[in-house]
Every structure is written in C-alpha cells, then in structure tokens.
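Chapter review: from sequence to fold.
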Amino acid sequence: MENNNNIAEIYWGKTISEARTYEEYKGAGVFADLLTDRTFKKAFNPDTKNKVCLIALLNAVLEGEISSPIVDVQSRDKEFNDGSNENRTTVFDLYCIDSAQRRFIIEVQLLMQENIVNRAIYYASQTVIAQGERGQKYNYELKPVVTVVFMEFNVFVDDRYIRRAKLREINGASVSDVLSFAFVELPKFNKPLDQLETTLDKGLYVLKNMKNLTQMPKQYANTVFELLFSTAYLAKLSKEEQKMIDEAQKAKWDEYAINKAALDRGQNIARREMAKKMLVEGDSVEKVVRISELPESDVLAIKAEIEKQ
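The token string follows.
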C-alpha cells in the first residue's frame, strides 16, 4: 500500500504549474510565455532569423535519432486534409521541411490528452500518406517525418523527461527512418539555472521558465537562444501584440484552471477510494491519513460510513 501515494501523478498527470491565481500563472511580466501558441510560433518561426533557434532546439531534442543534423528549415502549410469522410483538417503549431526534405511536425500541448502518443502517430501517418502519388509506377520512396511534442504535463510514469522513438527491431536496431518521434515532458525537467550545460538543457529551461525571468541569464549570452529573449521581451512589442499575447495567456490560464479543477476532483476521488480500501483492509487511521493525504476528518468520516454498512 505504501506506493499508492503516487496515484494522483500516475493516473492524472502532473502539470507544469501549480499556480493558484492568474497573477502567479502569468509570471514576472517581463517576457512573454514561450508556450503560448502565438509566442511559440514567433520565437521559432522557420521563415525568419529565429529559425536558428528552431534548428538548435530540434537538433538537441533529436540528437542520435536523425541521420544527420538539421541545417536549414522552411515552413510548409500547417493545415491539410486528413483524408476522412468528415473532411476535417489538422493544424500543427509548426510544420516545416529541411534541406534534406525531411518533414518536421512540432506541437505544444497544454492539457492532459488521452492517447497522445497514438494521436502523434496518427497525424504523422497522415503526413506520410500525403507524400503518395497515384499510379502503378509509384515506388513508395518516402521522406522522413519527424514529430516533436512538447507537453506541459506528464504522461509516462518514470522520471525521464524526453523519449525518442522510431520503428525498431526487438534488439533495438532501426528498421526505418520514415517515422520518428520525440516526446518532451517539461514538468520533469528540473535542472536549476547554474547546472545548465548542453544546448538541450538551455532550450528546455528557457521554454519552461521564460515567463518567470526578469532578465536574460548570463548562461544565454552569445548563444543561439539569446535571440529568444529579444523576441519575447514584452516592452519591445507593440500595444496590439502585447494585448494579443495577454489574451492568449488568459485563455491558457482559463484552460489550465478548468483542467486543474477537474484533476483535483479526480485526485480527491482517487484518494478517497484508496482510503476506503485501506480502512477495509484494517489499516490505522493515522496510516491512511499519511498515505492518502486526506484530512483526518475525511478519513474518520469514511470510516464511519464503512462501519454503518
């Protein structure tokens, strides 16, 4: 029973923020949150000078999983038909192609989503299918499709914050480079500023913490990510841009607050079920309070309900 104190994190995920108010959530107010849709697309735009930030981030996240480093990228239409009868479309945060003709899908996900890995596979597969040509002479020569998903919540149970995957044999040898994936769980990346060493460290730290910073840390001077600070510096933006970013941040907070309320309800239900099971099995009230993290009054009330049955 001792391991059940992690039940909430395992089944409900852990979000990147534990803010209680919007003022806490929006950060220091000096830099924009890089994880809002508008700011992320501007900060990592493959069609502006900021493409160097995107290239550096992708190369760091995908190190060891792509056959050669990305040299240059340019955007592709982010919206395409998914081939279904409903004529629905898919819109990615960023969709670009590099000089080796590899396709890159980059997404930022705020809220916990069921089957997020299957979702990534589905949309990557649509990008593969879109390369097809009609006719018997088509030889199925496919360009690689690489999907990178940055998540503001946890999906997997262990402490690794990045997972890289592709089609492999059981012994680990690669079978195909057509589909590659990287899933980054930002809440698990907890390196402090003074321990940042690699490009990956610096890229993930600034993604997660930009909105809480008041100035550019010295660790970013003369690095490729220095450009992100000038891009996200709120005082340099027009009033219209500031308003749009503020509205995006408020919308993100609303989604977060609604989701967190649902998670809290779910966690409470899970804790109460766990407490009931422990009491039925004869565990003491003190132990149930410690493990379930419920107030003693709640545990006593649950015990009283059991004794009435």
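Two observations follow directly from the output. Residues 134 and 140 are 11 Å apart (CA to CA). The two ends are 23 Å apart (CA to CA).
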